[in-house]
Predict the 3D structure of the following.
Amino acid sequence: MSILKEKMTWLGTAIVLVVLIVFGFAMMGSVLGSEPKELPVALVVLDQPMELPTGGTLEAGKMIQATLSSNSSLPFAWHIVGSEEEARKGLDNRDYYGALVLPAGLSSSLYSLVTSSPIHPHVKIISNEGMSTQALAVVTQVLEQALRRINTELSLQLLEQFGQPMEQVPVETVKALVMPVNIQEEVIHSPGMNNASGNAPALLTQIMWIGSLVTGISLFLASKKEVGAASSRWSVIAVQTITGLTIISFASGFTIWMAMSWYGMEMADAGGTWLFLWLAGSAFFLLQSSLLNWIGFRAMPLLVLLMFFSIPLLNMAPEFLPQITRDWIYSWTPLRFAAGGLREVMYFGGLDAAASNVLILWSIAVGFLVLLLASGFKAGRSTATVSNP
């Protein structure tokens, strides 16, 4: 059992524990136990109060609004808007994960249920699927549950306010009063066919990160060989940069073609998706190559950790994440801007919808392009020192 006396055995065990802790936090700690908090949802109240023949006022829209707003268990941040058109505009602009529309005439329709001319009212739930399928499930499920409870309350209130004993109420009216309000559901900005349930932007981002990393490592090794052959370091770095961006252009186009032709991924704007994916891949390549050229393969642990810390966050709505994860990882990781921009391009109308993420990725690309080219001068000064002792 001499192996147990070797320092390397215990050092290896300690390293394994450190690796498990770091990658455990990266893959699980940053997302496990997450729950939705303050999901922005639009509420449209078009209903007008109705004066009852027996006295009093029926204000179903206001009652529903008060019930929903006062329910602290709902994971929503309500935004009151004046019209359905305004709510839809906010959904298109990715301001809301969903909207609840209480129509005009809701109160009068509810009253009609106990008359000879009943009109069954409808409320509408609009779910913004393109923003997050995870948030879509929560918005739809929680709103349906809340409206079912409200339906029960409305049923009791209507019977009390109308003052009609149960035996005098027709059977059809009783059936209508059991579920006074019908729920209509509408899904907008649907990802389409074979989009991994709306997670295709995250998948494309991961593929592009790995592809650009392989490109960066290959060209970094090739450039070291060229510099060893006494070539100009700055010119080698310049060629490395141009070659890498050319490869990324081809790789991004091939990835889009592969996703569509091999796997049947549906894309409304394949050209815009390719352009944005090229921009994201270029930003990744320049970031990775800059670190490799400045600090060598010591940059690899940083790049690997960045990838593993970022990947679990790409498919999650930020409102689901713990605050520490949002502040310390989600707020700055470049993979998040790439995945978010792809989501906007693919599901919300093309490159125009992704303007903010395009600007951020351009800034990353330009900043690391300057840093990458500057590494040529740094290496050149180092060579001059060695050759002239």
Observations:
- The domain at 39-188 is CATH 3.40.1710.10 (abc type-2 transporter like fold).
